[in-house]
Amino acid sequence: MLRFPCHIRNNQRLHLLRRLSLFSSNSAFMVSKHLLKTSPSSFTLLPLTLSPKHLSTPSKRLIPCLSSKPIYKNRSLSLRSNGFSSLTYLNVSAPAPAPVYSEDLEERPLDLHSLEILKHKLKKLGIDISECVPGHENRLMCPSCNGGDSEEISLSIFISQDGCSASWLCFRAKCGWKGYTKAFADGKSSFESFSRINKVKVKRQVTVESLQLEPLCNQLISYFAERMISAETLKRNAVMQKRTCNEIAIAFTYWRKKDLVNCKYRDIDKKFWQEKDTETIFYGLNDIDDASDIIIVEGEMDKLAMEEAGFRNCVSVPDGAPPSVSQKEVPAEEQDTKYQYLWNCKEYLNKASRIILATDGDLPGQALAEELARRLGRERCWRVRWPKKNDVDYFKDANEVLMYLGPSVLKDVIEDAELYPIRGLFNFRDFFDEIDKYYHRTLGYEFGVSTGWRALDDLYNVVPGELTIVTGVPNSGKSEWIDSLLCNLNQSVGWKFALCSMENKVRDHARKLLEKYVRRPFFEASYGSSVERMSVEELEEGKKWLSETFYLIRCENDSLPSIKWVLDLARAAVLRHGVRGLVIDPYNELDHQRPVNQTETEYVSQMLTMIKRFAQHHSCHVWFVAHPRQLHHWIGAPPNLYDISGSAHFINKCDNGIVVHRNRDPEAGPVDQVQVCVRKVRNKVVGTIGDAFLSYDRVTGVYMDIDEPQKKR
Ligand SMILES: Nc1ncnc2c1ncn2[C@@H]1O[C@H](COP(=O)(O)OP(=O)(O)OP(=O)(O)O)[C@@H](O)[C@H]1O
């Protein structure tokens, strides 16, 4: 049925009707679905092809060819005015009728003062007409329904050519908000407040008789039998039929106590429609009265299937599943239009201590389960796992399981329901896959990567995602040792690294790394002893290696980098270049501005948490160099990890703690000997505390096992 804005005068209506009847003969169904609603005050024009069934309900059968294309948010569309959606928009090939609003209105000049007042009035209703064009149909987001799940731009608004009045209508069947106002209306203007407009509509009372429902015929009983639903179950659930012309549709009756509340129809082609203006409630509501365990399914057939498996305490949602989980907060009860059935049935649900969500296994089914769980409370929800159909697919819903595997398997599925996951609350079971891979060592690096020095193999191995704090007195060789370690790791497992080494000039750092790689001094200088300096060819090869292996994080001005800045760039290096390790050297060269009320201890704790999160999230090992505080009475022994300046959190929070120390007293032992003190290893699988001794080759900066002869690359 077609409905016109009530402000259109009768002669205009007739004018419009003439044009529409012309138009409808060509394209009776090419109008938006909102135009199918009935209204006692409206003129009606029934397409001859409509059956009585179409009159009783906003049938989905009509909708596909009528529904408008989604229009995306924040677009105000000005469409040619023809009283309903523009022809261009609907892609109709029939000739466009002339504008339906009468000429005298169209010819009145725009009154800017009236338009301003109108704009102000409409703004109060949430309608912003600043971009609308008078004399045309405009589309806006409906402030009443916000375009529903699809966020369709569904409010059609027409502002008269003179800017003195506006009428609007939301095309969405579930909203249908309409109104009319004038800039200078008297006290009885049709201008209504938003809250009044949003008020709950009076629901239609229906009975079996008024809907002309009949007992199921044998043909339909056989249809259900094929789906393993017995006549007894059909009878108990008052499944009926309705005749419309030559068709018979299944009628699923929705009851609350003894009252018929709604009726949903399904034809043989699996098309659904339901009685309009009725209350939406769960299907099978009476069956969960006083039940402490409730099963919720996604369709009436599944509810009936559950009964065949022995579960009467089951209800079906009335409206199917949403395409995806909404990103928005759960709306307030009265605004939660799509899930009104939950609120309408809340006294039944409140009593339940366990709610099993047995929605379909597809994505909309899962989205429905999530939307239900969000509203019902995840803590009392359970979910089912539908059995496998073959190696790839799963059975979709209760009725499929009943048909193909039988009632006892369906019963098992429900009995094996598992707790609905709550974000942040886990069971080891959730990790069994990963635990198995860990056991079979298929995750990779379960024992860490060897440092390349035998002396350290039992003490320290490098695990992706861990944080190693490296300390030692100044000049002990911390940076040199880390660089040497990176070279070893690159050579053994091909890892790449991000370097944030604030104390090194780029060219110096390149020199040190190249010397380790080429194993020759960069210069011909005294430190090079008699070893020949690297050739130009070796330099070139080394440069290629440098550029393929390292990414530099450096502040291009003189400012100190903050830890967040460093980690953001490191993240980019992980994502863009696949780096597996990050060196931050040293802590005291970072910008440590902190809020006045934060202690250094709190600051260090927070900073280390950020670094660890980065490491874990990106499976990237982080070496973080921190200096010990000033040791006033230092007698040459390796410092302690608790001596690190700033906070005890360095040792508390790290996964591994290493002190690099070297002997500087020739009388106490060889001066090229370096002591790598492993002071903390959190993961016993990859190491333990203890000391390893390496020798340092001053010419190339390479560290070696003591008994190892000078290696050639
Ligand atoms: N075992 C060693 N024997 C002789 N010289 C060494 C030894 N280890 C490191 N060096 C030298 O000490 C200097 C400083 O090394 P490195 O920069 O690695 O020390 P560091 O502990 O990081 O120093 P800082 O704390 O000042 O940053 C380098 O010139 C390096 O060649």
Architecture overview:
The protein is of the alpha/beta class. Helices cover 30% and strands 18% of the residues. It is built from 23 helices and 26 strands. The chain has a nine-stranded mixed β-sheet with strand order 20-19-21-22-18-23-24-25-26, sandwiched between helices. The termini are far apart. The N terminus is likely disordered. Bound molecules: adenosine-5'-triphosphate. The site of adenosine-5'-triphosphate has 16 residues, from helix 18. Adenosine-5'-triphosphate binds next to helix 18.
Please name the defining characteristics of this protein.
alpha/beta, Rossmann fold, 3 domains, 26 strands, disordered N terminus, Twinkle homolog protein, chloroplastic/mitochondrial isoform X1, P-loop_NTPase
